[in-house]
Design a protein that fits this description.
alpha+beta; 3-stranded antiparallel beta sheet; 18 strands; globular
Length: about 350
C-alpha cells in the first residue's frame, strides 16, 4: 500500500513539474483588463521566457479578423513599441489607448523571446462601462485663416482634456470614410478613425495647418478630445469653406518638357511641368503618344472630351497648382503633352498641346 501511495505521489509531482515547465517555456504575457476608479486599467505579467511585448487594441469585431501571423507582421513592419516590465493596474490611456463607453474591445499582445523572436499572442477581450464624467473636458477653437487650398485653426483644450486628435474631411464624408476604409485600416467607428488618421495625440494648445485642400469646398475639421480616464468625448466639427481659385478670364496652362530619365530595372520616365495662369480654378494634364492621338476616335476632340470628364476616384486628376508630373515613357517615342484649365466660373479654356520626342536608347 505504501509503495502504491509513493508511486501516485511521484506521478502527481511529475505532472506538477511538467506543468510548471510548460508554463515557464511559454513566451507569453498573462493579462487582465478591468475598470479601476472609472478608467480601464491593465495588469500584465510576463512569463519567464518573455523579455518584451508589444500591444495594439481594436474593437472586437475588427480584432476577430486579424490572425496571429498577420498581427506579428504588422507590428514588425510598424516597428511597434516594445515594453519590458510587468504592469499592475495601469491605465490603458498610459499606453495611448482610448475607448468608447459601452463598447467591446480586444487588446492584442504579442510577446517576444530573448532573441526577439515573436512568441504567443494574447487576446484580452473586455467591455467598457457606461460613461462617467471626469470633470468637464471641453475644446475651444479659433479659425486663424482660410485660403483656396489651406486652413489654419487654433485648438485650445481645458484642464480636464487629457488629449485630443485632429482630422480633416470633406463635408458629410466621415461615415462614408468609415465604411470605405474601416476594415482594411482597423477601425469600425468614426472615433477610432479620427484618432488613427490624426497620427499624433495632442495634449496642449495646438495651431494646426491643413494643406492641399480643394478650392471652393466645404470641409469639416474634426477635433476629438478624451478625458483623463481615456474615454472619448463627442466629436466636434469646425466648418470651413475654402476660397475660390482663379478668375473670370480665360484659363490657360503653360507646358514645359523636362528631364527624361530612369533605367531598365525601374522603368523610364518623362518630366512635364504644367503651370496654370491666374485665371485657372483647376487644370487636368496628360501625355499621349502621337500614334494614339492620331487615331480616328481620339484627336483633339477625344482629348478634350477626356480632359473635361470628371474622375472622382482619381485624387490626382484635378490639379490646382503647378503640376510637375512624372510620366512613364519609352525611348524614341513621340508624345503630345496636353492640358486644359477651367476658370472660376466653370468655363474651360483652350486645349494646350506640346509635341516632343524622347531620346533614342543609348
Amino acid at each position: 500500500m505504501k509503495k502504491v501511495i509513493n508511486i501516485v505521489t511521484m506521478l502527481v509531482l511529475a505532472l506538477v513539474a511538467s506543468h510548471a515547465s510548460a508554463a515557464d517555456d511559454r513566451v507569453a504575457a498573462d493579462i487582465t483588463v478591468k475598470p479601476v476608479n472609472g478608467a480601464m486599467s491593465l495588469t500584465l505579467k510576463k512569463t519567464a521566457a518573455c523579455t518584451s511585448y508589444s500591444m495594439i487594441m481594436f474593437t472586437s469585431d475588427i480584432a476577430a479578423l486579424i490572425s496571429d501571423g498577420t498581427l506579428a507582421q504588422y507590428l514588425s513592419s510598424q516597428k511597434a513599441k516594445k515594453y519590458t516590465t510587468d504592469v499592475q493596474n495601469k491605465k490603458l490611456l498610459d499606453f495611448g489607448f482610448v475607448v468608447l463607453p459601452e463598447k467591446e474591445y480586444t487588446l492584442l499582445t504579442l510577446a517576444y523571446g530573448k532573441d526577439g523572436t515573436p512568441g504567443l499572442v494574447t487576446r484580452t477581450p473586455f467591455t467598457t462601462p457606461e460613461r462617467v464624467a471626469v470633470g468637464h473636458p471641453k475644446m475651444t477653437w479659433e479659425i486663424v485663416s482660410v485660403g483656396p487650398d489651406s486652413a489654419v485653426v487654433k485648438f485650445i483644450p481645458n484642464a480636464d482634456v487629457a488629449g485630443f486628435a485632429l482630422c480633416q474631411f470633406e463635408k458629410g464624408a466621415i461615415e462614408k470614410s468609415v465604411e470605405q476604409y474601416g476594415r482594411q485600416l482597423g477601425f469600425s467607428n468614426a472615433y477610432d478613425m479620427i484618432k488613427h488618421f490624426s497620427g499624433k495625440n495632442y495634449t496642449a494648445e495646438r495651431t494646426n495647418t491643413w494643406r492641399d485642400m480643394i478650392p471652393n469646398t466645404d470641409y469639416e475639421l474634426c477635433v476629438l478630445p478624451w478625458d483623463k480616464n481615456g474615454v472619448y468625448q463627442d466629436i466636434e466639427k469646425v466648418n470651413v469653406t475654402t476660397k475660390k481659385l482663379g478668375g473670370a478670364g480665360e484659363a490657360s496652362v503653360d507646358i514645359k518638357i523636362g528631364e527624361f530619365g530612369g533605367n531598365e530595372s525601374t522603368g523610364y520616365f518623362q518630366i512635364v511641368t504644367y503651370t496654370p495662369n491666374d485665371q485657372a480654378a483647376l487644370h487636368r494634364d496628360i501625355i499621349i503618344t502621337e500614334e494614339a492621338f492620331n487615331k480616328s476616335d481620339m484627336g483633339e476632340a477625344g482629348v478634350i472630351k477626356m480632359l473635361q470628364t470628371d474622375a472622382p476616384n482619381d485624387p490626382f486628376w484635378n490639379q490646382y497648382k503647378v503640376d510637375k508630373a512624372q510620366w512613364n515613357a519609352e525611348h524614341n517615342t513621340t508624345y503630345i503633352a496636353c492640358s486644359m484649365a477651367k476658370n472660376a466660373e466653370g468655363v474651360w479654356g483652350k486645349l494646350q498641346q506640346v509635341k516632343f520626342t524622347t531620346p533614342a536608347k543609348p
